[in-house]
Amino acid sequence: MRYYSLEKLINLHDGYRKVFQIDSHHLMLLQIEGQRYLIESRCPHREYPLRSSDVQGGELVCPQHGYRFEISSGVLLAASEEPCRNLHCYSLTDRGNEIGVMLDE
To answer: Which stretches are transmembrane (predicted)?
Structure first.
């Protein structure tokens, strides 16, 4: 496992959203109501980018087909077409004045 720095803590605020690519990992860091989430940045249904997705009541909604995922766990809650796998969520790690993630090399 290797640590990857994503952002300085001072830059995070409610409404923060940024996409990262680290090797084959496509990630999106969000902060909503003081909670930080790191999820895959593409919908597992058809790989549509989630950067412009809505977050409503703890659910992330894919802007392409309306698939709904629980933001904290990635569990698929509703599908408009064929079911897909859950959204992958990553654990965040605080190091000093920054936040990052540990990923397999």
So the answer is: none
The model's pLDDT over 40-92, given as tens digits with 9 standing for 90+, comes to 999 999 999 999 999 988 999 999 999 999 999 999 999 998 989 999 999 99
What are the Cα distances from residue 70, in Å, to 10, 73, 104? 26, 6, 24
Domain extent at residue 83:
2-103
Supply 33's token pair.
């109501």
The Cα 103–Cα 52 span in angstroms is 25
CATH number at residue 17: 2.102.10.10
Whole-prediction pTM: 0.93
Q: Structurally, how many domains does the chain consist of?
A: 1
